[in-house]
Design brief:
With 235 residues, this protein is α/β, with parallel strands linked by helices. Helices cover 31% and strands 19% of the residues. A 7-stranded parallel sheet has the order 1-10-9-6-2-3-5, covered by helices on one side. Helix 1 crosses helix 2. Bound molecules: fructose -6-phosphate. Fructose -6-phosphate (F6R) binds next to loops.
């Protein structure tokens, strides 16, 4: 796993944006896997500013709350429109349907759509303070495919900052599984802030465990972690 340490959040965002831009220049019709949360927002701003031509790019987001409507301003669909898709033109963007009647069918449909598109060329990820990637929470076993998960107390707590109160945070989500993430040809992980320093330290201890889902990325042949000095401060 490669690591790039940047001075601060802005530098991290620029470094990650360069990786995404290079991917799009190299393969204009590439498939990008995207994430929500605070970590990639600066990178999305850099991508918008860059003037890169995304018109042939297809995107698949990692996850969506369940149940949640697209027009709910807490949905990841809404987040992606506000932070990226209202500002750039992509060929097609996909997010799991948080209102699907049958979530299991929706998960299978989503995996099939990624497969049919040719698979993810570059997956962008953030890390939860507990080491989750997507909504794959620490557990003895982790599902390979896109699946519906119940969120842990720590994730509900962490995500409550975006809601008026903690009890408004949905308790479930649809998320790409570990297999779906690992199938991406390249992975770039963005990490910033002192609160992520302990999990970054765990990650670079070199052990692989489903109790720290991000640690599984050490088995990926082309994963890069781009972090700021605060996130790297316990290394
Ligand atoms: C978001 C996602 C999550 C976040 C993680 C970090 O689509 O799947 O795994 O990447 O919770 O969130 P932030 O960036 O807000 O610290």
């Amino acid at each position: 796993m490669k690591k790039i340490i940047c001075k601060n959040y802005d530098e991290m965002s620029k470094a990650a944006a360069k990786i995404v831009e290079a991917q799009v220049v190299l393969k204009p019709d590439c498939i990008l896997g995207l994430a929500t949360g605070s970590s990639p927002v600066g990178m999305y701003q850099e991508l918008i500013k860059s003037g890169t031509d995304f018109s042939k790019v297809t995107t698949f987001n990692l996850d969506e709350y369940y149940p949640i409507a697209k027009d709910n301003d807490q949905s990841y669909d809404y987040f992606m429109r506000k932070n990226l898709f209202d500002h750039i033109t992509v060929k097609e963007h996909n997010i799991p349907n948080g209102m699907a009647e049958n979530p299991e069918e929706e998960c299978a449909r989503y995996d099939a759509a990624i497969e049919a598109a040719g698979g993810i060329d570059l997956q962008v990820l953030g890390i939860g303070v507990n080491g989750h990637i997507g909504f794959n929470e620490p557990a003895a076993e982790l599902p390979a495919n896109t699946n519906k998960v119940t969120l842990t107390e720590s994730t509900i707590e962490a995500n409550s900052r975006f809601f008026e109160s903690k009890d408004q945070v949905p308790t479930a989500a649809l998320t790409l599984g570990i297999g779906g993430i690992m199938k991406a040809k390249r992975i770039v992980v963005l990490v910033s802030g002192k609160n992520k320093a302990p999990i970054v330290r765990e990650l670079f201890k070199g052990n692989v465990t489903t109790n720290i889902p991000v640690s599984l990325l050490q088995l990926h042949p082309d994963a890069t972690i781009v972090m700021d000095e605060d996130a790297a401060s316990m290394l």
